[in-house]
Amino acid sequence: MSDYEEDTVGLVETQYITFEEGVQLTSGFILKPITIAYETYGELNKDKSNAILVEPTLTADAHVAGINKEGQVGWWDMLIGPNKAIDTYQYFVICTNVLGGCKGTTGPSSINPKTKKPYGLDFPVITIEDMVKVQKMLIDYLGIRKLYAVIGGSMGGMQALQWLVDYPEYVRKAIIIATSARSSPMCIAFNQVGRVAIMSDPNWNGGDYYDKEPPRAGLALARMIGHITYLSDSSMREKFGRKLQGKESYGYDFNIEFQVESYLQYKGAHFVKRFDANSYLYLTRAVDYFDLTNNGKRSLAEAFKNVKSKVLVIGITSDWLYPTYQQKEIVLALSANNVDVTYQELESDYGHDAFLVEKGQMNYIVKNFLSKNKVRDIMMKGIKVLKPEDNIEKAAQIMLNESVTHLPVVDDDNQLIGIVTSWDLCKAITGHYSKIEEIMTRNVITVNLEDDIHVAANKMKKYDFSALPVLDNNNKLVGMINVEAITTVLGKSYFP
Amino acid sequence: MSDYEEDTVGLVETQYITFEEGVQLTSGFILKPITIAYETYGELNKDKSNAILVEPTLTADAHVAGINKEGQVGWWDMLIGPNKAIDTYQYFVICTNVLGGCKGTTGPSSINPKTKKPYGLDFPVITIEDMVKVQKMLIDYLGIRKLYAVIGGSMGGMQALQWLVDYPEYVRKAIIIATSARSSPMCIAFNQVGRVAIMSDPNWNGGDYYDKEPPRAGLALARMIGHITYLSDSSMREKFGRKLQGKESYGYDFNIEFQVESYLQYKGAHFVKRFDANSYLYLTRAVDYFDLTNNGKRSLAEAFKNVKSKVLVIGITSDWLYPTYQQKEIVLALSANNVDVTYQELESDYGHDAFLVEKGQMNYIVKNFLSKNKVRDIMMKGIKVLKPEDNIEKAAQIMLNESVTHLPVVDDDNQLIGIVTSWDLCKAITGHYSKIEEIMTRNVITVNLEDDIHVAANKMKKYDFSALPVLDNNNKLVGMINVEAITTVLGKSYFP
């Protein structure tokens, strides 16, 4: 196999699911039906515990990795694929086009069932909360009860934060990149000038242009403005300097003189081919509204009070659109809730865009965070247990119902006193035992919930066990850890 | 007198001068006639050595201080007036509307003599060099052979730098604020999107709109974009935060929601009342072109090789449009030429705009630089001298021609051996002497060119002399310093 084939998820296709019942939006509006465009890569494991939801940026679609039949490479392919940080050998990766977008998920260019014509400005104003609510419908539809991780940068980071706040039980880990817990006035200002550019274009026509010439000039200008904010002074100097475009000396006119002008003009012209102007309005507005403090009605620490996930927050040294103090504010508020949160900084001159560009650093940081696990991060909680006085019929019944082969035995104080395996049950039948205490193994190999998962993996290898009981610091039983969970994070090669 | 009256230059009026011969521009185009709109405050002293040229920013007019008859306060009034940093008791202050502007100086809205209609896009593309060339015509017209200082921020700083490079003999001191020796690609990019905004407005009509509806929407948008770049993330948070505009909760629509939106919209709408869209195109283009290295054809140090002025360079900590490394680059290149250059930083959260806002710091820094003088900074050079063997007729003739009352007497090695005053000539006439050596005072009070001017002033006071010879470190005569020059920098109150 070539390198190329080794690290790509290959040919991919966008899928669609329609929810006729729709959804009630933050604004109160009930939007229905709702179609969600999404892509998935890798395989969902049996207990559906290895799903990673990748959150799209402002103008990104569901096509985040691999190559589609039009030959387009996914927008974050550098991070997602076999053996990459988001390893499709281990994880089941999901990415959606956001609500309000124009790439298959319901948005202003979708058909309004009432008029049979595109919504245009009749589309309701949406929020980041609404986007996440719709993603949650997809996650439920896929039968996933807990995402292994949610990851996103910029507007994607906002969606990831919203998941933590709205569905804290659904997220094991979160990676929040180059974003803010509330849009700054500078962000709002740049979003506003982009919208004014679109709405000032006569072709915009109050949002009603789908059967006419669209507002290309306005949308291109909005994109040019946005693009400057994604770069940095130093990356622009590095990339363009003051180099002239196809000429040796100034033309002294208003045509393109500098390479930087040519680049932005190209970016603008290219963008209008793939994006809908009304979607740009709705999505930037959603970003404006985003504020986890509800505009100061609660503290950020209060907003995060139910967060249980393990969180990695990433800032970019040269990002002036979402400066690093904004990511540090998130870290502080999470820490105030005793959330297990880490902050890392991408050392980069690329500005806000760095998280889409810095392949090496991003892969290193993300891979490390996703794979570096304590037993507590991946153990099964709420497991069934036996008491010593239970009979073996009960044990057999539980094993059958729960599809497990190991059952811990605890006393009334939840202290572990033994373990029963399906093999022990065979022993009981041949030896005519009836009580658990007669057949259980008393010298049990255990792990502590704060142990690194490698400790658990090595014990399992050494003793050839497929599951181990997990104890807390008071030696009380708190869960079980099994081979499948470890394989999910350490890779299939770990247990050959 | 009230405080108000004490520190304003009062009612002012813009003046106009037309040069029929016009000027040849950098592009080769000969533009004629040229009218310059300008204002002056304070009085030009007898030897015309106290003139300070204030350089306008991108959209500033000639009305920089005082109040005009429309009641408008000058755009840098905080810095200019009686007892302010640019003290109109001491200095004669000049400010012009730039070439290409729309406030009285010839620009694209001026009448093209060939067509008898406004130039529009037939106006030639101009450069910072051209702006300064035209200012030089005004300075010559006013009979000023050396400006005491040139001062400017942003595009004004570019003009001040251009003065140093093109007319090094004409500038005694320069203050260069929040600017660059070459426009960065980020500046060019923001200028470009502003121009695209204007040129995308159908009302722009190829620049031909003076008898029609002007491109208000496009110009307003350009201004909104520009305005964001003049602020900083932190000043916007301080000023607006996420405060809503006249409402308690989100309206979930595309009307104004946030105060920052309202502010920018107001700034845009206000701007179109006072500014011409075509001027915006021409002036931003001139900024794009600005590069003292001629796009890398020479080093910045080479560009500054003839600079003789004393220079103060000011950077602003929160300026991300012209980050401080750009000012430090200027300092480095000047230092390489042994120019007497100082760097100071404005500690401010206000971003690029800080030099127009930070009244206290700006007054302190500028006043200090303008008034802190060595004898060498204000002495007269190239003075006439006598030899001991000269006769008194020659001395009388020189005094008459040069309007001086003191003439140093030097030997063949330019060592000072005496001084002759007009009073000595009276002595010669009454005593029937004919040779200089018979009447000169041999015990001369002198100052060193490195002395602080206070040293010179105090000696003059002590001995009641109105002028003193200036010696270099080898005791050779290098110039004269007089009461008038000292009064210019220390104020009239110094010699009551």
Q: Can you characterise this structure?
A:
Two copies of one chain form a homodimer. Chain A has 496 residues and is an alpha/beta fold. Chain A has three domains: 3-184 and 275-374, Rossmann fold, CATH 3.40.50.1820; 185-274, Rna Polymerase Sigma Factor, Chain: A, CATH 1.10.1740.110; 377-494, CBS-domain. Chain A contains 18 helices and 19 strands. In chain A, α2 (128-141) packs across α3, α4 packs antiparallel against α5 (216-230) and α5 crosses α7. The two termini of chain A are 21 Å apart. The model of chain A has no long low-confidence stretch (mean pLDDT 93).
Brief summary of the model shown:
2 copies of one chain form a homodimer. By secondary structure, chain A is of the alpha/beta class.
The name CATH uses for the topology of the largest domain in chain A is: Rossmann fold
Order of strands across the widest beta sheet of chain A?
A: 1-4-8-5-11-12-13-14
Q: What spatial form of chain A do the alpha-carbon principal axes imply?
A: elongated
The proportion of strand residues of chain A reads: 15-25%
Measured by residues with Cβ under 8 Å of the partner chain's Cβ, the largest interface is:
A-B, 56 and 56 residues
Give the C-level CATH assignment of the largest domain in chain A: Alpha Beta
Number of strands of chain A: 19
Total number of domains of chain A: 3
Secondary structural class of chain A: alpha/beta
Radius of gyration from the alpha-carbon trace of chain A, in angstroms? 26 Å
Q: What's the end-to-end separation of chain A, in Å? A: 21 Å
CATH superfamily of the largest domain in chain A: Alpha/Beta hydrolase fold, catalytic domain
